[in-house]
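Data card: per-record layout.
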Amino acid sequence: MTSDKKLYALQELLSTNGGPIPMSRAGIYAAAAKGDIPTVHIGRRIFVPSWYVYKLLTPPGEVSGA
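The structure for this 66-residue chain is written out next.
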């Protein structure tokens, strides 16, 4: 998931599609609807900001830029 993308579609984040989140399609949409996953709505489409994806993939305690 290293790219210059700023937004990811929810489907791109599912592990069944090669993404980092091991959830079902229904589960990820429910988490987004509850606000557990930050989202950006463009028209009828739902996206996740790249900063959140980076946060998911960065191990705890790792300092970036040091």
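Known properties of this structure: Residues 25-34 form the longest helix (10 residues). Residues 4 and 50 are 9 Å apart (CA to CA).

See the next section for split statistics.
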